[in-house]
Structures are given as C-alpha cells and as structure tokens.
Backbone:
C-alpha cells in the first residue's frame, strides 16, 4: 500500500535537495507520545515515513526549510519525544517556500471523510485553482522571508479565499477553507502515506495522501 519510491518522489517535489525538514507523527497507535525526527536524506525519510504509515492518524512533514542545526535533534531518524524535546517552531523556519490552501469537509472531529465529502473537497480545490489562475495567480510555491509581513500576507489570502468559497452548512457536503494554516512551521500530510483518522469503515475509509496533479 505504501511505497518508499512514491514518498521519496513526493519529497523531491516539495523539498529542495540539501535542506532540512521534520517528519512528525503526533498520534501513533500503541505508543505514547509524539514521534519525530529531522532529515536531509530523502531515502532515509521515505523509509522512516513508510514504516510509520498506517500506525498513526497521519505522517506529517514541514515543507518549509528548517534551520540546519535542528538536524542534530534526531539525525535522519525518528525518535520518541520526551517532555523536554521540541518540534519545529515558527522561528525555526529559515524561509517560506509554500502557501498551503487546505480544504476541510465539514464533519465531526476525529473521523475520515466520506467519499462524497472527499469528492466535494476535490471539486472545491479545482474551483479555487481555476479562479486564482484567472486572476493571474501562477504559483503556490513562494519565495518569502519568514517575517510578520509574510505571515499577514498569507493569512489575508486564506481569509479572502474563505470569504469567497466557503460553503454554507446547509449544503449536502459543505467544504471550508482552513484559515489557520498560515504559520511558517505548519505541518502537511506526507503524500504517499496513509491518512487514517478514526477507524477505517466502509463509509469513511482510510486513504493514501496523494499528489493528483
């Protein structure tokens, strides 16, 4: 189900070679506490990620470059974090490379999307992409400093998208733009690993996170 090759390919799509990034597993099953590590080796990262895929609700990465010194916290490996161990904070990000537009189907917390909710989120993503393209928006990969102005800019963009595209709760499968994902150290699901929120059921299945286009 999980391919190290696919995960490594996703990392090469998101991460510049030679830069440091974090892999984080916030909610592993049968293990207490967050697991995390820092990587600059795609093969090692893909191996670690696929090892944990399916044993947690999701495997996450920091797509914006992390300060190289943090590699010494856990060098190309995953470890269980103790009470005094830290994960990546906003000041640890050296530069912003990505702007995330995260679309959430409205549903109870702690469960996966139904097929209809998932499909509605994909339709909403296409609508937002097409509208932004029509406005002359060319890229979601950015080159911005990690400062207050860039944070405000990205937050404002997300709020504008939410104002235009959020569905009302009365619709069959409402989808909303998450306006809280503007911080520099925001973690993303790692493509090629299993998104496994809640139990896997026929109505709400676990799915591989994937790059579709």
Residues:
């Amino acid at each position: 189900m999980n391919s190290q090759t696919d995960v490594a390919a996703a990392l090469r799509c998101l991460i510049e070679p030679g830069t440091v990034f974090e892999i984080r597993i916030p909610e592993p099953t049968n293990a207490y506490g967050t697991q995390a590590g820092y990587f600059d080796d795609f093969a090692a990262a893909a191996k670690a990620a696929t090892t944990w895929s399916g044993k947690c609700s999701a495997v996450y990465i920091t797509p914006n470059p992390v300060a190289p010194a943090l590699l010494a916290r856990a060098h190309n490996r995953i470890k269980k974090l103790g009470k005094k161990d830290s994960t990546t904070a906003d000041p640890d990000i050296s530069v912003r490379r990505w702007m995330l537009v995260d679309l959430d189907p409205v549903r109870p917390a702690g469960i996966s999307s139904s097929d209809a909710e998932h499909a509605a989120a994909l339709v909403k993503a296409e609508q937002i992409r097409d509208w932004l393209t029509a406005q002359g928006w060319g890229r979601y990969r950015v080159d911005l400093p990690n400062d207050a102005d860039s944070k405000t800019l990205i937050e404002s963009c997300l709020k504008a998208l939410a104002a235009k595209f959020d569905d009302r709760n009365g619709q069959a499968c409402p989808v909303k733009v998450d306006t809280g994902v503007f911080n520099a150290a925001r973690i993303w699901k790692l493509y090629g690993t299993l998104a496994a929120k809640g139990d896997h059921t026929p109505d709400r299945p676990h799915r591989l996170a994937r790059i579709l286009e």
